[in-house]
Amino acid sequence: MNLRDSNNALLVKYDEEGFETHPSLLRRHPNKSTLLVDDVHGSELLRIAYTNRRMFRVNGFVPIQGEWKPLPAGAAVNGGCYEHFPMGVRID
After folding, report:
1. ∠ CA(19), CA(79), CA(48), 5° rounding?
2. What is the CA radius of gyration of the chain?
3. pLDDT tens across 5-18, in order?
4. CB burial class (10 A; 0-12, 13-18, 19+) of residue 60?
């Protein structure tokens, strides 16, 4: 899963080899199931938490048309299917 901003810059990359963020973002790993991504001011942008081996939930904010918008409650990735992500979110 790649999350990009409106300028097509890669913000978050997550695949079978691991999790990476853009150098301007900070990441934390408070437990084995959760990844946090903060901006340079310490504000939480994303909280990604595994609910089981095939599904993880995503809470936080994503860039849509140049503005950071909140994700709706229940945004999740389940076995490669994206659930409840708003239109305009670029995930590839």
Report:
1. 40
2. 12
3. 767 778 888 777 87
4. middle
